[in-house]
Amino acid sequence: MRVQVVIIGGGPSGLLLGQLLHNAGIDAVVLERKTREYVLGRIRAGVLERGLVKLMNDAGVADRLKQESLTHHGTVITRNDDFFDVSFSNFVDAPVTVYGQTELTRDLYDARESAGAVTLFNVSDVVITDLKGKAPTVTCKQGGEAITIHCDYVAGCDGFHGVSRQHIPESVRQEYEKVYPFGWLGVLSETPPVHEELIYASSDRGFALCSMRNASLARYYVQCDINDRVDNWTDQQFWDELKKRIPAAFADVLETGPSIEKSIAPLRSFVCEPMQWGRLFLCGDAAHIVPPTGAKGLNTAASDVHYLFEALKLRYKEDDETALNQYSAKALSRVWKVERFSWWMTSLLHRFPEHSAFDQKIQSAEIDFLKRSDAAQASMAINYVGLPY
Ligand code: RFL
Ligand code: PHB
Q1: Protein residue closest via CA to atom 1 of ligand 2
Q2: CB-based contact 244:277 (threshold 8 Å)
Q3: What is the pLDDT of residues 52-71, one digit of tens each?
C-alpha cells in the first residue's frame, strides 16, 4: 500500500487530522490498535475550546456538535463552603463548549466511514523505518497478516502509551515529567447536573469536580489516593464524599443515581521534545500529557493537529516544507503554556499529601486572591477558554 500520510492512532487527534487531510485531497490511512467500540468506550474529555470547535467545523463534522453541545460562559470555583463565579465573558470574547470526547470521536469515525477513508483496526507490531529518508515505511500486523505501507510522512497520534515517540532516538529525545501523588475517581450518572456551570471544588478533604455531558448526564470526579481502586468505592460512598467536598448550597440539591461508568485516572504532566524526528510528527498525548484540571488534553491535541495540518497543506499545495520544519517549535511553544496553566490549576485546587499547614494557608490565600482580583480572573479566563493558535 502507498499513501501520502500514515496516521498511527485512531483517537481524536488521529481522526481529526485524517478528516482534515481527506477534505484537502491528501491521502492518509489511520492505524488503530483497538476496535472502534473500544475507543468509543473510553470516557474522557468534556470541555472544548473554540479552536477545536472551529476545527470540527472546518472538517465538516460539527452538525451534531452544534445541535447537542452546551455553551458555558463561566465556571464556579469553591473553597470549602465559599464559592464564586469566574465569568469568561468579563474578560474574553469566547465561551467554552461542553461536548463529550466520546461523541466527538463518534462523529469523526462516522464521517471517516461515509467518506470511504481507510482505517485499519486491531493492528499490532507497528514499526516505522527510514524516517530520516524521503520515503518512510510503516509495517504492522492485522489478524496475523503482515502489512507494509510506504508513505511521505508519519503522524504519531497514538497517545501516551503509543510506539511513535519511541522512534525518536534516546540521544535526541528529552522528556520532562511530573507525576502527582493522587488520581481522579470519575463517575458518570444519568442524573441532571448539579449546576448549569462546572464546579471546580477545593476542600480540606481534597478536590472535586462537577461536570456534565448534557442536561440529563452528569460527570463527577473526586481526588483519590494514587493507589486507590474503583472496587473500594460503592456509589453511595462516592456521593457521600462528593457532597462533603462541595458547598452545602450545591450538596443539598445534588441528585444522585447509579453510576453507569466509574474509573480512576492518574494525574501527570509530561512533555517530549522535539515533537518531530525526520518525517515523524507527534500529535496530542503521544507528545504531551497534562493533568485534567484545566480541561486541556484534547484541546492541546487539537492545536497540534491544526499546526500539522496547515504545514502538510503548504507542503502538498506549494511544495514548501518550511512550516513542517517549524512544527515542533511552534507546537511546543503553545504546549508549555498549557502545561503551566494545567499545573497551576492542579496546584491551586488539590490537597497535596506533603503540604504543610503553611502550604495550605498559601493555597487558600491564592484562591481568595482569585476571588477578589479581576487580573487573576482574567488570567484564568484567557487560559481556560484557550490561547490563540
Ligand atoms: P488518545 O485518545 O490516547 O488516542 C490514541 C489512540 O492511539 C491508539 N494506539 C495505537 N494505535 C496503533 N498502534 C499503536 N501502537 C497504538 N498505541 C496506541 C490508542 O488505542 C488510541 O485509540 O490520544 P489523542 O488522540 O492524542 O487524544 C488525547 C485525548 O484523548 C486526551 O488528551 C484527553 O482525553 C484528556 N482529557 C481532557 N482533555 C480536554 O481537552 N478536556 C477535558 O475536559 C479532558 N478531560 C481528559 C479529561 C483525560 C482524562 N483521563 C482519563 C486521563 C478527563 C479525564 C479523566
Ligand atoms: C469532564 O467533563 O470530564 C471534565 C471537565 C473539565 C475538566 C476535566 C474533565 O477540567
Answers
A1: 46
A2: no
A3: 999 999 999 999 999 999 99
- pTM value surpassing 0.90: yes
Strand partners, 127: 139
3-state SS class at 170: coil
DSSP 320: -
The angle formed by the CA atoms of residues 194, 108 and 68, to the nearest 5 degrees, is: 35
- Cis ω before 193 (30° cut-off from 0): no
Q: Which CATH superfamily is domain 181-263+354-385 in?
A: D-Amino Acid Oxidase, subunit A, domain 2 (3.30.9.10)
Q: Is 264 in the pocket of ligand 1 (CB under 6 A)?
A: no
Mean pLDDT value across residues 196-214 = 98
Task: State the cell numbers at 266.
Answer: 492518574
Per-residue pLDDT reduced to its tens digit, 137-147: 999 999 999 99
Nearest to 326 by CA among 271, 389, 274, 387: 274
Please give the number of the atom of ligand 1 that sits closest to the Cα of 49: 40
